[in-house]
Amino acid sequence: MHAWPASEVPALPGKGRDLRIHDTATGGRVTLAPGPVARIYVCGITPYDATHMGHAATYNAFDLVQRVWLDTKRQVHYVQNVTDVDDPLLERAIRDGIDWVGLAERETALFREDMTALRMLPPQHYIGAVEAIPGIVPLVERLRDSGAAYELDGDVYFSVDADPHFGEVSHYSTELMRHLSAERGGDPERPGKKNPLDPMLWMAAREGEPSWDGGSLGPGRPGWHIECVAIALDHLGMGFDVQGGGSDLIFPHHEMGASHAQTLTGEYPMAKAYVHAGMVALDGEKMSKSRGNLVFVSKLRKDGVDPAAVRLALLSHRYRDDWEWTDQVLQDAVERLGRWRAAVSRPDGTPADALVEELREALSDDLDTPTALAAVDRWAALQTADGGDDESAPGLVSRAVDALLGVAL
Known about the structure:
The protein is α/β, with parallel strands linked by helices. It is about 45% helix and about 15% strand. The protein contains 13 helices and 14 strands. α10 packs across α12 (about 370-385).
């Protein structure tokens, strides 16, 4: 599976700062100091309704992580999956009377278009669950053969008790875990499971549903969590720098994925930092497919909204915060974009070296985008008030905003 085209990231004078970011597993900030190549895995979409503003906010956050690393003169090895076979996708295809493969391909293509428009840097490896199945099957067999997994009516479940570190990503109570498992695709009430929280690794073939050769597992398809584990281990290995996604992936997805990987390899932890973006609401409720209260990037683009304004709307909120999308949020972003473009269109301006350092400091401080935007606002206001005589300033600001914030002026 291919990703989308990469937009050029301008080079800036000097060097950026190492990123201090909130780690869900420790509950505090950690300083990430990768080697020459920083490694990041971000969980991708289930392609049946793309790309809503919750998606955009999540991928915007991890695009910023990449940009901070690139500014430190590191390379970035970024991997993202596409869950192109799963219950919600199959259910949507049945509901709409269309082929599930066609639905997945259509929505993935739309997602690529939206990511390109928003100037999100693409992953080096963009892997679908279906194409990863040949690598998933051996992992499930290893877990089963080692006693870390067991069969139940043809299905194969992971035993969470096999990982002594289970629970150390989310730190949630057992009661909350059971509730979230039931809400987010698990089956804690299924009779015969060793532990209600045990997640499925391999689903035996069901009548009328797609299935693949599972070797000794029999025909079927993979569970959600082992999909990402197989892709991450194959392309990044253990101990990569950031495992990213929305906060709704903390449990069960990232918790279970960490346990799968740690049990398979005997190494700990799977990732040095677990980083999660907040949820976006509309009309007082979390924006989600199940509620149908979605604002789509493609619809905004079709309506003539500049993608740079959409990106500024996302950047106006801290990535970890839950927030609400409103018409006013977008209008404020459109007006800000206009002010910034007017400021950099002048032939000269106020010196901007200090602004570049302000942007670097804000972003290295747990991706503090509101502070970064405020710094550019101040520079733009000075341009409007009395300008300056530095001919290089407008160009430097334009390049800095592009390189660090992903906004093309």
